[in-house]
Specification:
Blueprint (H helix, E strand, L loop, with lengths): L7 E6 L5 H14 L4 H19 L7 E8 L3 E9 L9 H10 L2 E7 L2 E9 L6
Antiparallel strand pairs: 1-2, 2-3, 3-5, 4-5
Length: 127
């Protein structure tokens, strides 16, 4: 995937056991974009933490939709899940992990949908 390709969309059941698919997709795309191993591992952790926030308390038939976009700056991942009545709550440990592993992130709700957006910047080589 290059920065000018179409976004990749992944829709999975909003259950913790399927979050590995979100992590694997992030890692695969980051690898295609030339991210180093440490940055790829950071992305895996960030996606897992952000997606877990979305599915907390979601119904058994709920789905999470993730959109992965390569940009000139790096990789942007956006996720959303219909979760009526839920407020996005970020556990202090999850907040710390997201701060350490993503270059920028936000978690928010609009109506009955909880969403996140995170950015992992591409490493700039000095050579």
């Amino acid at each position: 995937m290059s920065a000018d390709e179409s976004p990749v969309r992944l829709v999975i059941p909003a259950q913790a056991r399927f979050l590995r698919l979100a992590r694997l997709t992030a890692a695969g795309i980051a690898g295609d974009l030339g991210f180093g191993l440490e940055a790829i591992e950071d992305l895996r952790v960030a996606v897992d933490e952000a997606a877990a926030i979305l599915i907390e308390g979601a119904g058994t038939d709920a789905e999470i939709e993730l959109v992965y976009r390569g940009t000139e700056a790096g990789l942007v991942i956006e996720g959303s899940c219909e979760n009526p009545g839920a407020e996005p709550e970020i556990h202090p440990v999850a907040r710390e992990l997201l701060t350490m592993t993503a270059d920028d992130y936000s978690v928010y709700s609009t109506g009955d949908v909880i969403s996140f957006r995170l950015l992992k910047r591409r490493e700039v080589s000095s050579g």
